[in-house]
Amino acid sequence: MIEGRAMGAMGANCYIFACPESKKAVIIDPGAEGKRIHRWVVEKGLTVDYILLTHGHVDHIGAVDELRVLLGNVLVGIHAGDAGMLTDGMKNLSSLMGRGLVLQSADLLLQDGQEIAVGNEKLKVIATPGHSPGCVCFLSNEGLFSGDTLFAGSIGRTDFPGGSLDQLLKGVKDKLMILPDDTRVFPGHGEETSIGEEKRDNPYLA
């Protein structure tokens, strides 16, 4: 089961990925509105074991510590390349907005190819640096959570510290465009797309 909602002033998409049988769930990229996200999972009757982050920018991590408190025993995972962003307002870009967000350190340092069990389902970590040094996507049997790596008709910005257009394009072409065309793509901003649509229509991948 996948559900997504845009959260906060920057409209970053937060997703719930859940196993229908066990009601175990993961929250992906809770960027804001922690209480609203908490109500969402409670209404669904879900037990959240993990908060997983595609990268460490403020619009994707802003509600992490609030949800730690609301959910209790939950583990937060991020790739090692972005782990330092959680505890540094300059690195996570919140200081540029006058917030200076400093969070607790991650519990899990995610690795390329790692699989995370969610009840009877799995999420596979795909490292796609470029938007940030530790940017990742998560692949499930229902689709790809692409964070700020791949959007409908576009790709992520690479002008932030640690960004690299060459790295991002290599990751997208070598790791994402090899997926089946009918793979659904759930991006960090904007509407759902598919691998086939992006192969055909994305001007950055021509």
UniProtKB/TrEMBL annotation:
Classification via InterPro entries: MBL_Glyoxalase_II (IPR051453), Metallo-B-lactamas (IPR001279), RibonucZ/Hydroxyglut_hydro (IPR036866)
Region (Disordered): 183-206
Organism in which the protein naturally occurs: Desulfosporosinus fructosivorans
Protein name per Swiss-Prot or TrEMBL: MBL fold metallo-hydrolase
Cofactor(s) required, per the database record: Zn(2+)
Keyword vocabulary terms for this entry: Hydrolase, Metal-binding, Zinc
MF-aspect GO terms: hydrolase activity; metal ion binding
Classification via SUPFAM superfamilies: Metallo-hydrolase/oxidoreductase
Metallo-beta-lactamase domain ranges (all copies): 11-189
